[in-house]
Amino acid sequence: MMKLTRPFHGIILILFVMLAINSTSATTKYNVLSFGAKPNGKTDSTKAFLMAWEAACSSADSTMIYVPKGRYLLGSMAFKGGCKSPQITFRIDGTLVAPQDYRLLGKSTDWLSFEGVNGVSILGGALDAKGPSLWACKASHSNCPSGATTLSFTNSKNIRIRSLLSLNSQMFHVVINGCENVDVQGVRIIAAGNSPNTDGIHVQLSKNVNIIKCSIKTGDDCISIGPGTKNLWIEQVTCGPGHGISIGSLAKDLKEEGVQNVTVRNTIFLGTQNGLRIKSWARPSTGFVQGVRFTDSLMRNVQNPIVIDQNYCPHNLNCPNQVFGIKIKDIIYEGIRGTSSTQVAIKFDCSPKNPCTGIRLQNINLSYLNKPAQSSCSNVRGKALNLVQPESCL
Prior knowledge:
Elements: H1 7-24, E1 27-31, E2 40-44, H2 46-58, E3 62-67, E4 71-73, E5 77-80, E6 88-92, E7 95-97, H3 102-106, E8 110-115, E9 120-123, E10 126-128, H4 132-139, E11 149-154, E12 157-162, E13 165-167, E14 174-177, E15 180-185, E16 188-190, E17 201-204, E18 207-217, E19 223-225, E20 230-239, E21 245-250, E22 259-270, E23 274-280, E24 288-302, E25 304-309, E26 327-340, E27 344-349, E28 356-368, E29 371-372, E30 374-378, E31 380-389
Parallel strand pairs: 1-3, 2-4, 3-6, 4-7, 5-8, 6-9, 7-10, 8-11, 9-12, 10-13, 11-14, 12-15, 13-16, 14-17, 15-18, 16-18, 17-19, 18-20, 19-21, 20-22, 21-23, 22-24, 23-25, 24-26, 25-27, 26-28, 27-30, 28-31
Antiparallel strand pairs: 28-29
Pfam families: Glyco_hydro_28 (PF00295)
Family: Belongs to the glycosyl hydrolase 28 family.
Main location: secreted
């Protein structure tokens, strides 16, 4: 039987406590105002923030970059690693604001990016990416830039994000890419339900990541889980509006790293397109999904509460229509309850040449318009235990 634990969660907490104890004796503070930042929301403070980062990064002490109350206009910035400081904390009491003209930021990949850093914490504050004007451009089918991710961490270790508010990202709100030991808690993410590609938190090629006590309202996946994710713990997350919590889209590449040891527990989905979803393109791939446990989730008017889709093909464009698919095995759904806004509350659409195996349903109670819902199964093997409503098709 699959056994999922979260030893990495305790390791991360111990690590951060040790860092905090070590930092209390010698923490050098850098106020962005001292470097020329203006809290009026109109004066470009990009240079001041980069100077504060350079000073903190080059210090041998644990450091804090302090952002007082106010609004700070910032362009695209990359905070590079290789720092002498063992711990750098961004303490944000104000709001960081993107330029009003979406084109100034929209041509960049990221708005605020951290690359190759170790021991960075972001505490508090708000990030206002001014996304609605770009969304409107995209809705009109004009020649629009792709847009920037609001906050990204790449190839970094020992990262902590606490009590941050991300508003109206142009694209993804938070991206964790190629990272290790990341702890995200108390984050709020807000964007319109029809905002395009505004995933809340995206994780890929990363291990030992915790996402806890977060509220995510957005126009795409609340949390998206990409290839190469290992040891991911998601707990006490409220999602809606949005597209739910999704593993995938996978099988974008022939050679792709797998997703393994993922736990999603104590989650709430409110009027979302999906609840707990695994999705992959119908094409050959070395990728896989295994060792996933979805437990204790409440669904309220969710279109697809439980879904595995190995024939993912948005808008039916550029789809190869090959049926091999990635390997999906050892997936547990336990304690999933609430209401579906469609009659089919459980849908497993797996590959005929690579069926889903080891799927387990236990203590499921989903209804549709106060009536029994339905299940749909294709090319899936598993078992149902205890109460399962709708009636299992396994």
